[in-house]
Design brief:
alpha/beta, Rossmann fold, GMP Synthetase, Chain A, domain 3, 2 domains, 8-stranded mixed sheet
Length: about 675
Amino acid sequence: MSTDAGAAGADSSIERELERMLEIEKFPPPAGFSASANWSDPAIYEEAATDPVGWWTERSKKLLDWDVEPTAGLNDSDPPFYKWFEDGRINASAQCLDRHVAAGRGERVAYHWRGEQGERRDITYADLYRDVQRLANALKGLGVRKGDVVGIYLPMIPEVAVSMLACARIGAVHNVVFGGFSAEAVRERMEFAEAKALITVDGARRKGKTAPIKEQVDEQMGGVGSLATIVVVRSTGIECPMTEGRDVFYDEVMEAADPECPAEPMEAEHPLFILYTSGSTAKPKGILHTTGGYLTGVTATHKYVFDLKPDEDIWWCAADVGWVTGHSYIVYGPLANGATSVMWEGAPDYPHQGIWWEIAQDYKATIIYAAPTAIRTFIKWGAEIPEKYDLSSLRLLGTVGEPINPKAWLWYHQVIGGGRCPIVDTWWQTETGAIMITPLPGITVTKPGSATTAFPGVSAEVVDEREGKPVEEGQGLLMLEQPWPSMLRTLYKEDDRFVETYFSRFGRDRYLVGDAARRDRDGYFWVIGRIDDVVNVSGHRLSTAEVESAIVAHPDVAEAAVIGQSDEDTGQAICAFVTLRGGNEPSEEVEEGIRDTVATRIGKFARPKRIVWADDLPKTRSGKIMRRLLRDIAEGRALGDVTTLRDPGVMQELEAKIAEEAADES
């Protein structure tokens, strides 16, 4: 049998097994897992619900070492401008570094870093402690003071964590911009935040190519009047322009800086960071998080959602530090808990499609936290790739970023987890700071595709759209009904927009998430997607995620993205962009098979009216599908900025397909 034939046979066998498993509704914690789990008693939910403020306050004191322990829990005197632990004093950098070094854990590896070209660096807690202190002193020497904003525009290299923690050490507010954004997007964020300094890089590598980042930054930063300094990390060694009096090299200022910089205790409500989220039409929103509450949320959720055992686990959050997932579960949560993490610079398919599993094998990763989009991509490449590697060290898997369809959940469970690893399907946002809805792996009976129930101390509801009343079973709007410590405090410099965006619909004490969801008979949450990702076909409200899951259930389909398209007869019609598994070709038979699959799983009214075959889908470098761009080309609108896409050429190919389709119809 040929290799291709063998791979196809293996995938067919897996396909049959997944179809069988789709009949299984519930997956209890694996035998023996609960016995050693950090939390195994369901009574924790009732305990937290009885006194959520007291419960969170107790978590904060148990998990963090305060310089001045708070006596106050929640100040809710001026909703929605809530404050937590406001009379406490704490430093985020010290929580992540100093206390571990003082406890004799300085030689523990904080990050196993792998470079795109195979480079390896093991950075210990003592290494981070040393470098963070020097950079903190260097920033102070460059005029950065408590409350100043420092921009960070770096790829996935250890210096990004050093930069964040150095800012936190002296009370500067860091504003990380994802490395995939254009320099123009960086300028916009630095300008609005009035950043005093920017830490960037000479060049950034992606799939064997090096982009001249500093050169691109220089083209944009001339008009940012507040920006006094640009610090440049020499990462790739390429030549880069340096402006005298403004630009300095990272290694040179580090060498000149004093080696000791005591961490300054900060007020619990002192701003820790700003992180901008892009809107599809509006200008970016500057999410502002503060110190004590945010640290409480990420430390607790990281420890308990992932059953973390810092002396035993090798943790790998396969996100980018430029997004909130990286802030919370690559930097602050893992370091506060004293964990050892994997940090990977590159893409999931470079230098080969098995690189993730090679890294997991090499470092004996025990926990992986990844996006459903990545998982669906691995499905498309075939199970034979991960099956080449020893993944027996894995004991728990997580998903983040968007709802995961049941079939991808099961593939992840079987192929990557070997059927033995619980899956924590987590829902949260940049705004929430930390995980809000999730299984607890030692307690929760999971259902493929459901984020299950709210984390203890979090109050979530599905409510009807008109009056905001709870829906016991059925679909509606997802709401968070009471404050939690890691919640955003405002939108930076835009208090009115903060209230209007999140707290205007049903009152200033109820947070409107912006997602649609449904609740099943067991009270489990099924997050459907953004409210504007709901398609209304002849009065039938359908979630794009639900239709996508049905399409992906077809055996020939690897991935799908669904949008609503204007239709004279039905108001909106479903348009599906579909990527087939390797070896399958588009045909009328496959097209009808997809429609039949959707009709069987949802109903005939949900069948896609239009199917566009796509070799790939437009995705950001963090793996999210840009459905907004798909709506633009389907409706014939001009495309906006595509520079943040992993591969901008995908849009050109899709535009050509749409044009060809239109020519054939005419």
